[in-house]
Amino acid sequence: MTSKESDMWKMYRFADRADEVNWNSRYQPNHEFMRFMISHMLDYAEESIKKVTFEKRDLRAVIGLSGGLDSCVSAWLVANAMSRGIKRGSSGRSRLVLITFNGMSQEDLEYGRRFGEDLEEGFPEVEVKYIERDIRPLMKAVHNFTEDMVCSIKGKKVYPGELATRLIDLATLEYADKTSHCGVDSTNGSEIVLGEIVIGAGLEYSPISDLYKSQVFDLGELLKMPNYIIDRNPINSTFGTDKIRSYFGEIPEGFNARDVYAVLDPILFHIFDKKMKPRGIARKLGHSQEFVERVYQRVRDQDHRRKHPYFALNDRRVSLARTISDKPNEDFKQYLEDCFLGK
């Protein structure tokens, strides 16, 4: 086992053995509800792009395209919104820029190229522009720069870093700013719950950040996206490995990525949305408690990525004010008024 694989498994592994997991406890799609939501998502996409670019008629958006499910679903959804706006007259000209970066993997590049052609063909009324750039020289320059800083203070490296993702979002956002386009982020809800988000990366409009990965599969299917995108295994961009096999050491024969997320997402939902503890989740879903506790700990360990730690006065008003008064809420409110109302 390489040190890279060891680091990956230490960070991401939830279960080594298949018998730790109840593979029959799965997310259940509701296509009727999702179809209802799609109309609202398309409206919101149109509104969001106009809000970001300060335009009342034209729609301009740019997305970094990896060729994976999330970026492709996001691009396909935006193209649908643009097409819909043109056809119903709520928008005029529409341009969607797809940027595929050579530097993640050759497979990503090939999927991105193929998808760009399919999207352009599927939405002829939308101006689709495909850009391909080699990000490796930029990655090398920044890597060497930071390596020099590490060496200069005899620092010790503990993590491979997330440079590619940061630079891809940075380049996409810089293009968006220079050309008055809306930068589209393609992070999904499962990644946010698990903390698989890169600090220092992010764009201006996030169409699927409130959808678990299982729902993103549903959305792609209902939007009639190409099957080769829906069927593709997700890749861990930091380690360049199969993501679902970093979660599970053993997966039942015949299970694909969609099947695995259908098992994982209900656990994430009960941890993050329902605020349940591991014992209750394990009992309800039929998993081993050890497995659920590993997922739970991963979610809790990544809280700082979803919301960066900061000292919030309002969150501490009682404990702070209690040291000076028997009426902490009233005195703290008065303190703020005295400071900010010129008294």
The shape is: globular
Main sheet makeup: 4 strands, parallel
CATH superfamily of the largest domain: HUPs
H/E series: HHEHEHEHHEHHHEEHHHHHHH
What count of structural domains?
2
Low-confidence stretches: none
User: Care to count the β-strands?
Assistant: 6
Widest sheet: strand ordering: 3-2-1-4
The radius of gyration computed from the alpha-carbon positions, rounded to a whole number of angstroms, is: 23 Å
Describe, in plain words, how this protein is organized in 3D.
The protein has 343 residues and is of the alpha/beta class. The mean pLDDT is 89. The protein is globular. The strands form 2 sheets. It has a 4-stranded parallel beta sheet with strand order 3-2-1-4, sandwiched between helices. It has 16 helices and 6 strands.
